[in-house]
Specification:
Number of helices: 2
Radius of gyration: 19 Å
Structural class: mainly beta
Number of strands: 21
CATH architecture: Distorted Sandwich
Order of helices and strands: EEEEEEEEEEEEEEEEEHEEEEH
CATH class: Mainly Beta
Strand order of the largest sheet: 6-7-8-9-21-17-16-11-14-13
CATH topology: Beta-galactosidase, Chain A, domain 5
């Protein structure tokens, strides 16, 4: 595995980590952001906003693209703390650690660490949030991947059962005020939900749910990106009426989002939130049905 400093899309202080099969790129000029993940020489699974690449120092938060770390529940001010300044990059033990300066707006320090496997496509993405302020801060870690346009985002519900053998609820299905279940971009099935990204449709859509074995997949041009997160506890500990997974789309992006439980961080305390990524070629889903999704994606997400 190699780690090399490169100029990426105008950001001179960027780092590429690769095992020869896949690569990930982070930049030290803004962030922390993972701006690229995919097969070497292949497509970037993440969206990039061309007009914002190579730039820094903007006073307001920029979508920019890639994968980022936020805090939930969503706050119109604090969640959008700008991440437009330099990031400290440390290379150690075949991993790359990206550390943001303490945010003046929140008093939080955010880190993203990438640990790539020596072979195959697996990469562990460790998110850390430290309370560098002087007061307790109640939050949930929130990891958001902004996917490239034109694909399908897929999520699996917890195991299904039958009535009357299973009378207790298994998971929430959370709506926002702008959620429209009649929108044709949704495909709601018994075991899965699918959201299609349509560059011609600017209307936002979002749903959330909970699964102790949270996973999301994005199918794009015959390839799939998979992210997995083990959600500890039960839904009552999670933000947004109990969500460990949320997905959002508009004309620009589709996001696969994982959330950890609500936590009160005392001054100097920190938390971690770990996702496991992989990517896969030769993905062909003929119809968006439960059986077809299980057949193609099931082996990739451990179902």
């Amino acid at each position: 595995m190699t780690v090399e400093k490169i100029n990426y899309r105008g950001w001179a202080n960027s780092y590429r980590i690769s095992n020869g099969e896949v690569e990930a790129i982070v930049t030290g000029d803004v962030g922390p952001r993972v701006m690229r993940y995919g097969f070497v020489g292949g497509q970037n699974f993440f969206r990039e906003f061309e007009e914002q690449l190579g730039r820094s120092g903007e006073p307001d938060w920029q979508p920019r693209g890639g994968h980022r770390l936020w805090v939930g529940p969503e706050d119109p001010v604090k969640s959008y703390a700008p991440d437009n300044g330099p990031v400290a990059i440390t290379v150690h033990d075949n991993a790359v650690l990206c550390t943001e300066p303490v945010e003046a707006l929140t008093g939080l320090e955010k880190q993203i660490e990438l640990r790539m496997a020596a072979a195959r496509t697996n990469i562990e993405v460790v998110h850390r949030i430290r309370n560098a302020g002087t007061e307790p801060y109640r939050l949930a870690p929130w990891a958001l991947s902004m996917m490239a346009r034109g694909g399908h985002g897929v999520h699996g519900f917890p195991p299904r059962g039958t009535h009357p053998e299973m009378l207790a609820p298994t998971n929430p299905l959370v709506m926002w005020a702008f959620t429209d279940l009649s929108d044709p971009r949704w495909t709601l099935l018994k075991r899965h939900m699918v959201l299609r990204q349509d560059p011609a449709n600017p209307v936002p859509q979002k749903l959330g749910t909970f699964n102790s074995k949270t996973w999301g997949a994005y199918v794009l041009n015959g390839e799939a990106f998979v992210k997995r997160f083990d959600a500890p506890g039960d839904p009552s500990a999670y933000p947004d009426f109990g969500c460990s997974y949320e997905t959002f789309t508009n004309a620009d992006i589709l996001e696969l989002e994982t959330l950890g439980p609500m936590t009160t961080l005392q001054p100097s305390e920190s938390l971690t939130h770990t996702e496991r990524w992989s990517c896969h070629r030769g993905i062909a889903i003929e119809r968006w049905t439960d059986d077809e999704i299980d057949r193609v994606l099931g082996p990739l997400v451990g179902m």
